């Protein structure tokens, strides 16, 4: 067998290892193909989660980040027990932290507890987030009673709308919503066994978000942290992932352009340190958001979720870096100039426009593909939004 790095694209593994053997949905195929573009041309591929070995375009000669180069190893999207078994079967080591460590710090409860301990949780949320383990939810009657007791202790504003989300999940999938402090709604009750199978749940008030941000990082085995970049997440109201946006400078450095970017970076460093002390190393990311507080003032929650795996934010940053030479050739930016970018997992409503002198569009799928991911770059965000029909 070749000594080249092998990839295991278990993109949906956190929602259940059983998905490994199912036929992949079109969005999973798209994500797997985009992820593959971060690696070098000699990288091998193991079929996983219904993702065929042919998915994705031919890679560049070298990986976009040096730390992705790892001969005679296997790299997974998320380090799970199945990924470790695949690595062992292939006679490879699994890059990154052991699955047990990954599961510990990938748990949404870890992010909540770390944020609370590091004083990174807004005061109005400290007493309005609760962690439920799987055993508390397996019996729907007991689970409803426990949730009701928690809601009874919340202020009225928090009880108006709330959400119960899986401790292991992504992109808003698997949530159950509630209103007016009612814990025994049929949909909520039905969700409890499913949430128990996902490792438990987090009970939180539903907040009126105004900005979603993410930081992408690499933590090596010695504990050295590299901040790869920050960006703004583009999410549906439900939390479903749609894309990333931000800016890139003449050296290829990517940032969110948010006034909260420095606070996001500081929080990312703090939580990465906590994860490292638990034994974690590898690709990781922090999600954060701004919201309207009960007082009506703008507020920021710098730690929402800690992702102990590759993320689409990291993929977007990698794709921007891959396109750096093309971007420089198209726009010839000045050293101090920042160009706007928008990455989307699927095409905008009007489709991807053609490239011209004001806009550069890179498409990552065949014309007949169900999902049409792409990356657009323009001189400024106004031009970008106008040409893509976004008008945010």
Give a verbal description of the structure.
The chain folds into three domains: 6-95, no CATH class; 123-205, Dna Ligase, domain 1 (2-Layer Sandwich); 209-388, D-amino Acid Aminotransferase, Chain A, domain 1, CATH 3.30.470. A hairpin with a 5-residue loop joins strand 9 and strand 10 (225-235). The strands form three sheets. Strands 9, 10, 11, 12, 13, 14, 15, 16 and 17 form a nine-stranded antiparallel beta sheet that branches. Strands 2-1-3-4 form a four-stranded parallel beta sheet, covered by helices on one side. Strands 5-8-6-7 form a four-stranded antiparallel beta sheet. The longest helix has 17 residues, at 261-277. It is globular and about 60 Å long. It is built from 13 helices and 17 strands. The chain is an alpha+beta fold and 392 residues long.
Annotation keywords:
single chain, 392 residues, alpha+beta, Dna Ligase, domain 1, D-amino Acid Aminotransferase, Chain A, domain 1, nine-stranded antiparallel sheet, 13 helices, 31% helix
Query: How helix-rich are the residues, as a percent range?
Result: 25-40%
Number of strands: 17
Name the quaternary structure.
Answer: single chain
Number of domain units: 3
Q: Give the low-pLDDT segments.
A: 18-22
Largest sheet: 9 strands, antiparallel
The assigned structural class equals alpha+beta
Named at the architecture level, the CATH assignment of the largest domain is 2-Layer Sandwich
Can you identify the CATH class of the largest domain? Alpha Beta
How many helices does DSSP assign?
Answer: 13
| CA distance, first residue to last residue | 50 Å
Q: Report the C-alpha radius of gyration, rounded.
A: 21 Å
Order of helices and strands: EHEEHEHHHEHHHEEHEEEEEHEEHHEEEH
Query: Mean of residue pLDDT?
Result: 91
Shape: globular
């Amino acid at each position: 067998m070749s000594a080249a790095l092998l990839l295991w694209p278990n993109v949906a593994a956190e929602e259940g290892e059983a998905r490994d053997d199912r036929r992949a949905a079109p969005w999973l195929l798209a994500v797997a193909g985009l992820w593959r573009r971060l690696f070098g041309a000699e990288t091998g591929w193991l079929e996983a989660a219904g993702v065929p070995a042919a998915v994705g375009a031919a890679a560049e000669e070298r990986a976009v980040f040096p730390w992705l180069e790892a001969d005679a190893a296997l790299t997974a999207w998320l380090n799970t027990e199945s990924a470790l078994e695949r690595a062992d079967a292939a006679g490879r080591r699994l890059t990154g932290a052991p699955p047990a460590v990954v599961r510990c710090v990938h748990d949404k409860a870890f992010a909540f507890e770390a944020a609370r301990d590091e004083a990174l949780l807004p005061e109005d949320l400290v007493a309005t987030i609760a962690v439920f383990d799987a055993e508390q939810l397996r019996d729907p009657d007991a689970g409803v009673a426990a949730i009701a007791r928690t809601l009874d202790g919340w202020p009225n504003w928090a009880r108006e709308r709330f959400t119960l989300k899986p401790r292991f999940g992504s992109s808003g999938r698997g949530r159950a919503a509630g209103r007016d402090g009612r814990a025994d709604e049929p949909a909520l009750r039905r969700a409890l066994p499913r949430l128990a199978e996902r490792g438990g749940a987090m009970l939180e008030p539903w907040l009126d978000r105004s900005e979603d941000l993410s930081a992408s990082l690499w933590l090596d085995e010695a504990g050295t942290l590299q901040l790869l970049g920050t960006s703004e997440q583009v999410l549906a109201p439900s939390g479903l992932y749609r894309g990333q946006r931000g800016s890139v400078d003449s050296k290829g450095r990517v940032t969110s352009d948010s006034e909260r970017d420095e606070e996001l970076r500081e929080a990312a460093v703090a939580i990465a340190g906590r994860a490292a002390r638990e034994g974690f190393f590898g690709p990781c990311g922090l999600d954060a958001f701004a919201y309207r507080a009960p007082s009506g003032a703008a507020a920021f929650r710098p730690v929402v979720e800690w992702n102990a795996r590759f993320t689409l934010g990291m993929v977007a940053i990698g794709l921007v870096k891959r396109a750096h030479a093309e971007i420089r050739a198209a726009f010839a930016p000045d050293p101090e100039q920042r160009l706007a970018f928008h990455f989307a997992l699927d095409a905008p409503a009007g489709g991807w426009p053609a490239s011209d002198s004001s806009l550069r569009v890179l498409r990552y799928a065949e014309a007949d593909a169900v999902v049409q991911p792409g990356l657009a770059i323009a001189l400024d965000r106004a031009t970008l939004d106008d040409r893509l029909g976004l008008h945010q």
